[in-house]
Amino acid sequence: MNDMRIRVSGFLAGGIASGLKEDKNKDLALIFSEVPADAAGVFTTNRIQAAPVLLSRERIRSGKIQAIVANSGNANACTGVQGLRDARLMAMAAARALSIPEHLVAVASTGIIGQSVNVVCIEKALPGLAERLSPDGFPEVAQAIMTTDKSPKVASGTGKIHGKTFNVISVAKGAGMIRPDMATMLCFICTDLGAEPAVLDRILRQAVARSFNAITVDGDTSTNDTVLIMANGLSGCRLRDYSSSGPFQEVLDEILIRLAKEIVRDGEGATKLVTLRVRGALSDPDARAVADAVANSILVKTALFGEDANWGRILAAAGRAGVPINPDLIDLYFDGICLVKCGIGVGDDLEGPIAQVLKRDQFTITLDLNMGSGEATVYTCDLSFDYVRINAHYRS
Q: Domain 11-265 adopts which CATH fold?
């Protein structure tokens, strides 16, 4: 399931430095399917949307794309009519380099908001990038879409449907402006399975709900969030309808959850990946509201960074989630160690063991409301001094 070296039939990819970044790191990525692929996408819910989001949202409606061109270093957001023109020029340049129709090219960008993108650099670089695309080029794509990420993010997996094997590979980027508002980052998924676009869309949205819509770093939402999936069917494995999608849904969920956790782990300045489980709510939506309130609490996140078992902050955050809660029923656990029982701290004797849990770089907090069967899981991180340092100087 976890082999990064997996190849997906009919897909080529690559990334290079086109000159958009002053540090000369990779900043331009291209993914190409040898045949037009079934496609679906999920985009930011932010009312302010970057030009590439507007263009790709329009093109994904056809249910077919054949290539994705993406850049980092510039978001091409809040750039008006010129931004839309530049996004189309990117797509046109990629289409020429690949000898495919322009309407089959989706576009994505990430980086600084409010500045025009240097399309000339992109247009000059794309022919050379197209020539060097490779089945093994997905790690280059992951590098080329990085901004404040500390490391590239690639995940892959395989499965079987009707006795035929399908392969999936996905790349993602994200470290800041992360919260569950879809998609909170960029992610591109390629599979040699085939599926009707409507079926693919349903599968993708379920996978995103369990992964990228269940993470938070800083409670902020980008203008450029995009998740795109291309399914070219070249494995000979095809979903006839949603009822047979279970094996593919399972593989996709696993891959995207893994990438989502990597985004949180890589959060700007983060030192801890925390799985927050809320159970015993009156409903799943109630549980999710409580989980989001706790996971996004600045006071909780700073306590996590300080390795302080300040459980009062957790209960206080849960209490303002706007859903029914009985404080006399709440239990709280850190990696299975009960710190609060029926809304009251169990005593100072557990401060030592809890302190050891908080020193780990990965642990689980479980909040049991003991009122019903509703549950939710969210992945969050701590908030450190480095988060302020990174974002105070992001443009410099």
A: L-amino peptidase D-ALA esterase/amidase (3.60.70)
pLDDT tens figures, 26-38: 999 999 999 999 9
For 268-297, what is the mean pLDDT? 94
Domain 273-392 in this protein, CATH class: alpha beta
**What per-residue confidence (pLDDT) applies to 37?**
98
Could you tell me where in the chain the CATH 3.10.20.340 domains are found? Answer: 273-392
Please give, one letter per residue, the 3-state secondary structure of the chain.
Answer: CCCCCCCCCCEEEEEECCCCCCCCCCCEEEEEEEEEEEEEEEECCCCCCCHHHHHHHHHHCCCEEEEEEEEEEECCCCCHHHHHHHHHHHHHHHHHHHCCCHHHEEEEEEEECCCCCCHHHHHHHHHHHHHCCECCCHHHHHHHCCCCCCCCEEEEEEEEECCEEEEEEEEEECCCCCCCCCCCCEEEEEECCECCHHHHHHHHHHHHHHCHHHECCCCCCCCCCEEEEEECCCCCCECCCHHHCHHHHHHHHHHHHHHHHHHHHCCCCCCCEEEEEEEEECCHHHHHHHHHHHHCCHHHHHHHHCCCCCHHHHHHHHHCCCCCCCHHHCEEEECCEEEEECCEECCHHHHHHHHHHHCCCEEEEEEECCCCCEEEEEEEECCCHHHHHHHHCCCC
Residue 3 pLDDT class (50, 70, 90 cuts): very low
Residue 99 confidence (pLDDT) = 98
377-391: pLDDT as tens digits: 999 999 888 877 777
Active-site amino acid positions? 184
